[in-house]
Please model this.
Amino acid sequence: MPINTAFKLKYDSITLPENILALKAQAIAARTAILKMTSLAGSGHPGGSLSTIDLLLSLYSVIEHDPRNPSKPDRDKIVISHGHVSPAAYTALSLNGYFELNQMISEFRLAGSIYEGHVEPCVPGIEWASGNLGQGLSAGCGFALANKIKGYDNHVYVLMGDGEQQKGQISEARRFASKFQLNNLTAFVDYNKLQISGTCDSVMPQDIKAEFLADKWQVLEIDGHDLLQILAAIKSSRNNAVPTLILAHTVMGKGISFMENDEKWHGQTLPYKAENGCDLVSALAELNQPDDFLHLQELRAKFTSGKCSLPHTTNPDLPVISGKHINYEQKTDNRSAWGNALVDIAEHNNTGEFLPLAVFDCDLAGSVKTAGFREKYPQNFFQSGIMEHHTVTCAGAFSQAGFQTFFSDFGVFGIDETYNQQRLNDINDTNLKIILTHVGIDVGEDGKTHQCVDYLGQVRNMFNFKCLIPADPNQTDHIIRWLAAKNGNYLVPMGRSKLDIIRTPEGDIFYGDDYVFEYGKADLLRDGDTAALFVMGTLTNKALKIAGLLKQQNINLQVWNVSTPQQINPEVVKQAAATGYIFTYEDHNVHTGLASCLQAELVNLQLAVKFKAFGVQNYPVSGNSDAVYQYCWLDPETVSSEIIDIIKG
Model:
């Protein structure tokens, strides 16, 4: 969409003296607020906040935004990557009308306040929670890419520190932005040349400018405290054909003489009064600003909060058409069923103008079965190469733009290697669907580095992720279609090998056309009264074989397939416990998987049973998958024999 006339006039007038004078006055007010709020809290990061505040105030003076409607779709976005400069971010927003200044100052870093120590999107105007350095540019890429796909003529700005340029994820994001020609993306580096341990050159030298130029970015080098230079650089970046870096030379602690160019003020706050004069009183005098610290203390003392934690927001589900179930009668792999379902869902939702689905890949499309989607819908398929850390963050930010976003990868890369990025997605309420293949010890010959046996444990560490574990290709198809319209973060893990179709004792397809997936429902595949066996995922067919072997010994085994182990129906647990014996069977870390989920539910229900967990006890070995199961004592014959010993022993 074109920039409106008022916005053009604003850009044309940015060098008028009265605008600069107003910005200079605002900068003094901002520095005053930054020092007061950090001193009041007794913690925070004033040094970097003082060096970056001129960049933020300049941006808010010219970008398209509306304090009365912070979520307007066509707004320009500002991502704060070095989230510890929250004092600067909150102050800039407050001075631009988003919320009342003194309230923000007095509530900074109070338990239960929205004004947390690192930037959080519960604060109006904050786009992305950060603090884990190095992820902001990836999030900015996601936002900018989504804007391009939607045809918005707006811009995304990412503010970063200089120390965080040492993070490898930033180099991944640079390359991605260049590949996808994200000229609607501008990054700032607050280049004060200091970090916690000293100068950036002494800690880890690098040539930031050369690195961005090497990845085909435009680089503008400016004085980060010269408001005219900042505004001119912002204006120039809007017209570039490639993504732009504004390398802003700044001074840590800028504006307070005894704080300037001293790294100790990175995370050290000013006392109200100190004998050496390095205190808030002296700083306020230097800024020629009034001292109302005691009044702010009174406001802070009046703050009340019922809870320290903020509620997790729930967004409405997306209007995605799920399509009709594909019925599989012959042995095949779950990953092929997932790829087929994806293409079918896309065909049902392709209007010819807009497809609300997107897929992010890390050089594994053939193995994770997203190649079919890539061939039919290349404009919605984003190949990132072997850059998992960036891709997870980028896809998470992209998913907030109304796209049902899928990221498919091998288990060890998609959740183990990128746990920190997935955790930040969880905090940011993203809408990412993570489809993992090659999980468990079914991977076989690839060995322990690739045998992802902790995916459920990783998901359980996050508060809002849900794990859906399909047992065969038919259930895979049902699960993918079920979550296609759901909002929120989901992980769907599956093995590599082809699986037999799960059938009823009469030979009918269990997960056929009539099956309806329900979150929290466990499926009774075989009934019995002697004992109960709970299984998930790839081992389900082997669990049925165990039931057959035990039946020859007059042991009638209930077999329950649990596809949502984070939520197990209590009535199912009671029915299983009535047998007196419960067993769990999984190719997952036995300490963090299905067994521990079921044990917790048994404790909650105060049920006492004889319990035995069959699972992975240590890192497995490389070899044929059946041989690896046998090595881990998880082959049906070994498990059956042990169950017999427990029941009859």
